[in-house]
Fold this sequence. Notes:
3-stranded mixed sheet, magnesium ion transmembrane transporter activity (chains A, B), 69% helix, Mg_transptr_MgtE_intracell_dom (chains A, B), 454 residues
Amino acid sequence: xxxxxxxxxxxxxxxxxxxxxxxxxxxxxxxxxxxxxxxxxxxxxxxxxxxxxxxxxxxxxxxxxxxxxxxxxxxxxxxxxxxxxxxxxxxxxxxxxxxxxxxxxxxxxxxxxxxxxxxxxxxxxxxxxxxxxxxxxxxxxxxxxxxxxxxxxxxxxxxxxxxxxxxxxxxxxxxxxxxxxxxxxxxxxxxxxxxxxxxxxxxxxxxxxxxxxxxxxxxxxxxxxxxxxxxxxxxxxxxxxxxxxxxxxxxxxxxxxxxxxxxxxxxxxxxxxxxxxxxxxxxxxxxxxxxxxxxxxxxxxxxxxxxxxxxxxxxxxxxxxxxxxxxxxxxxxxxxxxxxxxxxxxxxxxxxxxxxxxxxxxxxxxxxxxxxxxxxxxxxxxxxxxxxxxxxxxxxxxxxxxxxxxxxxxxxxxxxxxxxxxxxxxxxxxxxxxxxxxxxxxxxxxxxxxxxxx
Amino acid sequence: xxxxxxxxxxxxxxxxxxxxxxxxxxxxxxxxxxxxxxxxxxxxxxxxxxxxxxxxxxxxxxxxxxxxxxxxxxxxxxxxxxxxxxxxxxxxxxxxxxxxxxxxxxxxxxxxxxxxxxxxxxxxxxxxxxxxxxxxxxxxxxxxxxxxxxxxxxxxxxxxxxxxxxxxxxxxxxxxxxxxxxxxxxxxxxxxxxxxxxxxxxxxxxxxxxxxxxxxxxxxxxxxxxxxxxxxxxxxxxxxxxxxxxxxxxxxxxxxxxxxxxxxxxxxxxxxxxxxxxxxxxxxxxxxxxxxxxxxxxxxxxxxxxxxxxxxxxxxxxxxxxxxxxxxxxxxxxxxxxxxxxxxxxxxxxxxxxxxxxxxxxxxxxxxxxxxxxxxxxxxxxxxxxxxxxxxxxxxxxxxxxxxxxxxxxxxxxxxxxxxxxxxxxxxxxxxxxxxxxxxxxxxxxxxxxxxxx
Lengths: 454, 454
């Protein structure tokens, strides 16, 4: 057995040398090297390559290998590749995919491609595909596998063991057998380890666990992920509304969802699409990011419009123009800290109606203390730098106001947005920054106009 | 079996009603309700409660239950609770913890608490604890469990099966047996499902997998997580440098690491500690967040100092003061989009020396096109709003410069910082914003001074 320390570094090295030989045009060699890589590493290689290189690599890749690699690829990259394949070879690639991967792959295809792919499938595969697609996207039914092993409750362990020996191998990641009655209703589960420690003569119903939970086929995948994470499941049975066993979900499928859920907030807060492909063509990326920049331009103009109200003040005291950015910037950072924390708290299921009021009060208090600390500091800095105590007082007051506004809006915005079914991660930070900008400028230039202009 | 749909909503409801009865002071009732909750839900309840409520709940919780709940709690919350417990009861709570949870719990304790806890342990437990702590934090040895089941290669499956039946149950999440020689050197693995499908008469060495990889005990936990994610492992053996089997890592321990790794960037980019507890006391939170605000104040003052260089210009043209924030703000957003994407690409292992140059070029191109789009737009807006074409031209030029600077620094900063072994997520966005602020102000006020002031 090889040590993974090597394995890891090897992977990086191998990928680099493949990239090297590809540039050198040593295609035969690259083809050979690709054969030695596990599908997941080939996927990593493709995801780490620009579109052009991806196509070359894909051509060099053994076709029998296409399916396994497609399973591992992220949505964007996969679509980019499939869109350039002929339907028939897409079908070949999808042939022996697990149901869950099949569903996911097909669902992300552009409608026209999907249709032509379905069209060129044979009847049985098409039925399987359409069944898989019939479950709502991002539901348990969508990410489940259908290859469950079921047993009856009234047979002996010995019978079960002999039954299993008839199979050459069990489905991938099988850790549990499912006990069902004649109508396929789920009665309980028997873990393989329980099976191995049980006496051969006892019956299944004596050792089966009828307490464990089943996931309804319509449960949203993020709820599924939360349950796996919270209860440390390795796998779970999936049932329909009549409690018939329809499949099983294994943790390896859930891990990706857990990562995506966790990454979602970061990506959205930066105005990026979760699936955004780091190596997408320039045009595509520019287009995707422009929405956010557009929104930001509007808010920036809004802030400018606020300053515009104080044009006369600004023209009389240029120093105000110089310091005008400090208070909004501090408010923005403080507000985003609160916002991020609350959004994460929601994602982890920590923030609920029963404690949100407490949370808002807490962040308001933090805002107040932040205000105290930073207004004293900024006031002293300005007093020293500009030798102007009145100016120091004005900016200190503005800082105080804005820090309180930041804490309050940072805590309330996500709670309100969630009530309105808007994703806080997506629009939260823009709205927040707009608030802190406007309040900051108003407070600073407003008080300045009152106290410093005569 | 109960459906998890109910389960989920039930959990939320239960937690809310517990909170309600706690406020109502119905302690007996709360104590009863707590008994019906799984440890993970109690942990969720504690993490969702302010410090004061946490203590009350902890008091009401059955002591036999303390250990299971501590395992599930996040670092900050756990320390908060343990710090208020007497060492002896901490020891009782840690008594029957798995090695990995024990190590994690102890390692996060303040030194003095740790010592008194170790002191009040009996010899055997102390040895176990010190052994667990001997592995570097955040390494494979630290997160592994030691309860492996090992078999010899020359025995028959039938013997193995009878051996397993002697045990009342296998260790939690056992899905693989490990084949070792007399000196405990790992020779291979046998999955339970393979064991069940094999013929009783064949020997272990005929069905064992000697290809699969072992994790070295010193491998960083984030590498371990990446491997589990990339290769869809459910468990993996852990070996020391002599290739002796020392333990096993199961995916349920890795899932938490995967989430933390994924969350790390978002939290750091907002200047928050990964472990920051949403319901920590005001003082603690204020202190933790002030570092970041302090750094930001310095950069904000730096930006102000740049504007200060153009005081005369600003005093002559107040409109410049009004528009001064637009270009920096746009640059900041564009730069942070690039930064976030590159940081995520690094976390996923997509960004490597072989492709970083390509990536920088791409982001530079995007910066250029962003520049074109938004400079044209802002120029037209200003031309219409302020009826001043020269001013429009000046701001357009500044926008162009800053968008290019944003793309360039957004892509290069994380790559450089990684080379310097600085966490890009932590300091990246501050440095970036400073750059886009300074460049933006310089370009805008500089060109304005040249072309608009006579």
